[in-house]
Amino acid sequence: MADAAPSADPIILTVGSESVGLRLDTFLALKFPDFSRVLLRRAITAGGVRVDGNGGKPAYRLKLAQVVSVCLPELPRNTPRPEPIPLEIIYQDDYLAVVNKPPGMVVHPARGHWSGTLAGAVQYHFGEALSLAGGPTRPGIVHRLDRDTSGAILVARSDLAHHRLARQFHDRTIEKQYFALVAGQMDRDADLIDCPIGIHPQHREKMAIRRHDEQSRPAQTYYETVERFRGFAAVRVSPKTGRTHQIRVHLHHIGCPVLCDRQYGGRAELTLGELSGDPSDSTVLLNRQALHAARLRFLHPAHGRVMEIEAPLAGDIQTAWDALRRWRS
Fold this sequence. Notes:
By secondary structure, the chain is α+β, with helices and mostly antiparallel strands. It has helices at about 25-30, 35-45, 120-125, 160-170, 245-255, 270-275, 315-325, and strands at about 10-15, 50, 55, 65-70, 90, 95-100, 150-155, 175-185, 190-195, 195-200, 205-210, 220-230, 230-240, 270, 285, 290-300, 305-310. The chain is globular.
């Protein structure tokens, strides 16, 4: 993708408490996820990024209330290339659609993932009948799910619908419920996990519980145990806040990480042999995090009626759940 012309006016950012101590290039990568880290470093070293009026270095550590002035190439104005990727559309009308996102699909184009995205798929299925309020690279995209999380995701088909749905996400009036398979046993049948989350102190691509860190943010997750197995459990999870990786971090914190969560759970796959006790059976049941966005409840952006939409469970999670019932009940 060719570089666009640089922006004439700089973008002005103020360093908030959540960004204190971040490297300058990391700060910019979080603010401009569509730009590669290499491009951002080049912009910094070329003098396109200034901190309190002074030139900076990529490794410079930011301080509270500093002003960062950024001159970068504009985001590409072209929308994602429409791709004929099959989609399970579980609801649609003239204002919105709800898609049951498959695991392994990135929601919108970003560095390293310019094709095979949900944005490209909805562009093919809905054409120009999509909101562009989220930016030209995110047609119709109101919110996101992690690449390996499956389930319900809202797509706005007009800018007005987009703004009204985005407001509900901002005000936390949209109710989201997830289904997860976890390793370990929950101490309680139901509980509220109330632990602040911030960037991991050693691994900046991860999040962690940070109780005494001024940069952390409050986070609450409610869970209910659906079914217990020997060494595993099935749970329903309702996040009350929307922090990055919140469910995964909170479940890991209570000793029950999402099954096959490579980043937080310490394992990459679940085999049938592990459950049945037959070490020769290497049949892979699951090789991604067992987390599924099962239900959305929100107000319709046009007529205001309550909408409650459920996404059928992804096949790989259902297969693993059935195997747990057979071998670990």
